[in-house]
Amino acid sequence: xxxxxxxxxxxxxxxxxxxxxxxxxxxxxxxxxxxxxxxxxxxxxxxxxxxxxxxxxxxxxxxxxxxxxxxxxxxxxxxxxxxxxxxxxxxxxxxxxxxxxxxxxxxxxxxxxxxxxxxxxxxxxxxxxxxxxxxxxxxxxxxxxxxxxxxxxxxxxxxxxxxxxxxxxxxxxxxxxxxxxxxxxxxxxxxxxxx
Length: 195
Prior knowledge:
Elements: H1 3-10, H2 20-24, E1 29-31, E2 37-43, E3 50-55, E4 66-75, E5 77-83, E6 91-92, E7 105-109, E8 114-120, E9 135-144, H3 150-156, H4 160-194
Parallel strand pairs: 1-3
Antiparallel strand pairs: 2-9, 3-8, 4-7, 4-9, 5-6, 5-8
């Protein structure tokens, strides 16, 4: 396979979940929170295009939350940023699908998701055989936005059994509060009628 064929094929390679750490130097899913984090990833020269999905746990942040991401350094690697949850629904973040500038901040809605595609750059000087080496990049990320309060998280569906239990308890308590006085009056009235 020529370098051109390999690069073309690489841009369409969906990383395999089980081998992703070995092939791409990091997990497929990268979990962000409201603390600044930084990650250094070294991609082996034998890898194809690697995909990294940056997101936060479902139903943790309100829908106005955003993922902030910035590239800190790169070496022998091309980076592409997309909005989406995986390779089946990507939208480019940078016009012309250009690579991001080191230090430039990017912001995307948390619900949309952020996908980073990276692949090793093969360097060839004056038609010689390409020099192939591992690629490295470092990027920072965090979630900026408000978290749901704990009591809203219970009702959002993170733990559906707990939500059903809470709603059931409030319903039973409401029925008892509304019906108890009526039942007591009715019971007393029946007792008086029998006597």
